[in-house]
Amino acid sequence: MKLSYPIVNNSDQIIGYKKKDQAYKEKSMLRSVQIFVYNSKGQLFIQKRSKNKSRYPNYFCASVAGHVELGENYREAAIRELKEELGLKKIKKIKFISKEKTPVGKGIYAMMAFFTMKTNELITLQKEEVDSGNFYTIKNIQQLILRKKRFTPSFLFIFKKQQKNEQLD
């Protein structure tokens, strides 16, 4: 049975419920989370999505990304996704950074909450969702982007925004 997900407007108010593929087809806005997981060396974990994913198979993306399910808030969804996709058990400090309308495809947006966290815990990938993953320096990730490696639109949007904000600090 496929789940129905909350559909929201630009103010993040729920205006209905749809199955994920229907929402994407109709360009309805789902709630999503994206988490950047850093290690103690300041390296960012990025994952390569499974070849079996219906959207963006074999693309690089955030450490963790996923949809907010019915009855969940953004933080709960982020914690659930960290446990599912990376097998993390000790999720102590997850820091909320921002929430905004984020591009997730051509003319498709999600209301996305962005979080960061640091961990040195061993990562165990969820094979159905994630093909591979590793910690990279920010410079390495910038080079991958410059070399036209395939990244999801939402990762590029948030990564570039993070880089700009860090330059302003």
Radius of gyration: 15 Å
The CATH homologous superfamily name equals: Nucleoside Triphosphate Pyrophosphohydrolase
Q: Main beta sheet: strand number and arrangement? A: 7 strands, mixed
Average residue-wise pLDDT: 93
Count of DSSP strands: 9
Which regions have little confidence, pLDDT < 50, spanning 5+ residues? none
DSSP strand (E) fraction? 35-45%
User: In the residues, how many domains can be counted?
Assistant: 1
Q: Provide the CATH architecture.
A: Alpha-Beta Complex
Distance between the termini: 47 Å
What is the CATH third-level topology name?
A: Nucleoside Triphosphate Pyrophosphohydrolase
> What is the H-and-E element order?
EEHEEEEHEEEHH
- Please, how many helices? 4
Structural class: alpha+beta
* Overall geometry: globular
CATH class: Alpha Beta
The residue fraction in helices comes out at: 25-40%
